[in-house]
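#struct-help
A.M.: can someone run this one for me? Single chain, 374 residues.
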Amino acid sequence: MGRDGFVVPGDIQLASKKKTAVSSWVLMNDNGESTILDVDKYVIMRRVHIHARDLRILDPLLSYPSTILGRERAIVLNLEHIKAIITADEVLLRDPMDDNVIPIVEELQRRLPAVSTSFQGQGEEEDLGAQNDAEAAEENEFPFEFRALEVALEAICSFLDARTRELETAAYPALDELTSKISSRNLDRVRKLKSAMTRLTNRVQKVRDELEQLLDDDDDMADLYLSRKLTRASSSSSGSGAPLWLLASPTIGSRISRTSRASAVTTHEENDVEELEMLLEAYFMQIDGTLNKLSTLDNHRNQLIQLELFLSSGTVCLSIYSLVAAIFGMNIPYTWRNDHGYMFKWVVILSGMACASIFLSIISYARSKGLVGS
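D.P.: on it. Structure tokens below:
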């Protein structure tokens, strides 16, 4: 600040830095309780113990592909508009006020809390309570980080599938209209839909590739077992005892108790990733189905492009042939036509052969470039 109350350029730059460094997050714990945080990146990095390069992946101003990274104490998740950091007992979700993020926040609040297994009742109520106890116990077996990851995967798969259905709703009538009437207006409409479909296909492909890459690497999947890693770290550092802050989480506490009871478990069992693999495979199949829908739509569009190419090429060749025939068919006296009437017949024949060659050349070139099917 200057002496006369004016902000000097250095102050402007510093104020701008402080303003842009703060971002909005929503913090949700394993009870489903949420808190809005407006903090800078250093607070987030210290809280979840990740590096700046990992946090940079979640910057909405930077264009990073869909990513699911497993770190020592956190999962870094970048799936379209879903930018989150998942730990063993809490979730940090960026831009909670975004229209596409609000439903995810609500779903996390509903599904993150561990299901209570305490039921009381008599007669039929006791049977129902026993059944609910078994279901709740099975639910609690699923680690906290995987419950949060499942919500994110379900949200992104549903979001992309909805965008695909919207595109189908607009594309099929446009393609049918192009089939019935080929015009510049209909062609321009289909071209715009093609651009939208290409962009959406790329987005779906990135999510699918990330899931496929995870499924192909057991080590990457093992890195996502945050509760298991915390349990091992606690067991190795304090023997059979566990820190109180770990036992405060029902998910982590249950895993610690199971680990202490099963001290003779093998390394293979500790590194088992079947639970996560089944989760990822379910959403991989869903996103793969969405990609197949877009491929089917693209094939239908390519068939119409092939029809358009055939018609356009045929029209050009017929126009050339008609032009030649019209020139030689005009009733204008030319001296060179005397005693050379046979030339007209050969010129017409050669013109027809040339037009057919042009047509076949265009189709062959289009097939070599993959524009039309063989």
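A.M.: thanks! The longest strand covers residues 22-29.
D.P.: also worth noting: The chain is about 65% helix and 10% strand.
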